[in-house]
Specification:
Order of helices and strands: EEEEEHH
Helix content: 25-40%
Strand order of the largest sheet: 1-2-3
Number of helices: 2
Number of strands: 5
Length: 90
């Protein structure tokens, strides 16, 4: 099984996928944006991490996980660079 995670500016989507049967479970979490003036927007990067962890827990508890395929890949903008620093710190 594989877990796919899409961390976007306004939300996180997580999917538990079995190659032989398809989608086993999915979860999503919204992320609030803050705008102090027109044309500007900020998000709480701590909320991204909370959303990732919470949505992983949700899909794993919803499906019968026999074995997860190891691996990690990411691409994108600031979301993953900020999460990566926190996730892989130490």
């Amino acid at each position: 099984m594989t877990i796919g995670i899409d961390v976007g500016t306004t939300g996180t989507k997580t999917l538990l996928f079995d190659p032989s049967s398809g989608t086993v479970a999915s979860a999503s979490r919204e992320t609030a944006l803050f705008s102090e003036e027109p044309g500007f927007a900020e998000a709480d990067t701590g909320a991204w991490m909370t959303n990732v962890i919470g949505s992983i827990r949700e899909v794993v508890s919803a499906g019968e996980v026999v074995q997860l395929s190891p691996g990690f890949g990411f691409r994108g903008q600031s979301e993953w660079s900020d999460l990566g620093k926190e996730f892989f710190a130490g």
